[in-house]
Automatic annotation (TrEMBL):
The active site is at 79. GO terms for molecular function: zinc ion binding. It is found in: Cytoplasm. Belongs to the SprT family. The gene is sprT. This is Protein SprT. GO terms for cellular component: cytoplasm. The lineage of its organism: Bacteria, Pseudomonadati, Pseudomonadota, Gammaproteobacteria, Enterobacterales. Binds 1 zinc ion.
Length: 165
């Protein structure tokens, strides 16, 4: 994978917004939360993912650099709300009422499940496939082989056939 370096100033803005949102949550619940670990390793067309068990937010560096503040304002609360929903309510629906509540009542931002950023620059470089145990990243070559019916990939862990996410 090509390593994409996120400028330091942009990383600082990310941290600033994350802390701001975390403060809103701490104020609401009268409780302190640890700062999530933020990494810039999200690939594909997803803007970010929240890794609940690891208390980590994974951001898409390309979409972040392309969309700057709009990305930060939208994706940070979105992913942070996933972590907090898990922390406060346990296993709940990913974009369920708990997540909505955190977004709109605590963070005061519009809750939308998906982002609207243009994805032409991140599309078609990597294809996310899944089985029942994990996500797999396939190259365009591997993806095309599957499309042409020449190849089928199976997960080494669970033995299931990979399907496009
Ligand atoms: Zn989400
Ligand atoms: Zn598997």
């Amino acid at each position: 994978m090509k390593f994409v370096r996120v400028p330091l100033s942009l990383q600082q803005t990310v941290m600033h917004t994350m802390r701001q949102k975390l403060t809103q949550a701490s104020y609401f619940w009268q409780q302190n939360f640890p700062e999530p670990h933020i990494t810039y390793q999200q690939r594909g067309t997803a803007a970010g993912t929240a890794r609940l068990q690891d208390w980590e937010i994974r951001l898409n560096p390309i979409l972040l650099i392309e969309n700057q503040q709009t990305f930060i304002d939208e994706v940070i609360p979105h992913e942070l709300a996933h972590l907090l929903a898990y922390h406060q309510f346990g296993k709940v629906a990913p974009h369920g009422k708990e997540w909505h509540f955190i977004m709109e009542t605590i963070f005061k931002v519009k809750a939308s499940r998906t982002h609207q950023f243009p994805v032409h620059s991140v599309r078609s470089k990597i294809f996310i496939y899944c089985c029942s145990c994990q996500q797999h990243e396939l190259t365009i070559r591997q993806h095309n082989k599957i499309l042409r019916g020449k190849n089928c990939y199976v997960c080494r862990q669970c033995g299931e056939k990979l399907i496009l996410l």
